[in-house]
Design brief:
With 262 residues, this protein is mostly helical. 69% of the residues lie in helices and 2% in strands.
Length: 262
Amino acid sequence: MSLDTPPTPRPRSRAIYLLPNLLTTGCLFAGFYAVVAAIDKHFAPAGMAVFAAMIFDGLDGRIARLTHTESYFGKEYDSLADMVAFGLAPAIVAYQWGVVRIMEFGHYWGRFGWLACFFYAAAAALRLARFNARAASADKRYFEGLPSPSAAAIVAAFVWFSSEGEWREPGLTGLIAAFLVTATAGALMVSRFGYPSFKQFNLDRRIKFVYMLFVLLFFVAIAVDPPSILLAMFGVYALSAPLLWAGRRIRRLLRGAPGAGA
């Protein structure tokens, strides 16, 4: 071999692909555990498991990019795990927590209850399919429709918040609330509203010291009352896009009204 010929780089070992796929498996396991815990009426652990799935889901892609182990297999596996953890699991958790009890108020109420949970699961599947189909051309700064992990977080935090302490069966108000939260989260997933993705946020960027204090206070608040803070945080995020859209529509109507700006 000529001395001027650069040495052929050794192929990267396939064993490194194990790490991101193990994290994806952790996401899948957490979603499966949430279903099992809900069936056993352990609703607070079921809600926690959905948030554990979110942590694994957030890590697998980052680790794959950092270690240059991204693959088509990993992408497809991640979508399937997301469907279980953020599509099926929250729907079953909500159904087991209270929606199943709504049939006691009438046969048709029962149908509406499980159909609301199925609508959520179907919306999550559609949301994931749309994301995968448009990933190459989509604006990375925004998500089209509420991301499925955020929708799952709202449902899981609601059930977790409502199950703190010794669990008791929800009354009619709780059943209606579970019905509305699940159906609304599903509708926002398949909506056209734009949600900031925060993918442009650089963890290596320098920030002011006061911002670090806000971050620390935020984590302290979560540690003090996790379900309440998480429900409020993801609820505000979910409602932000439709509220901003409504605000823009109102401003346009006011500008176009007779005498506006006079």
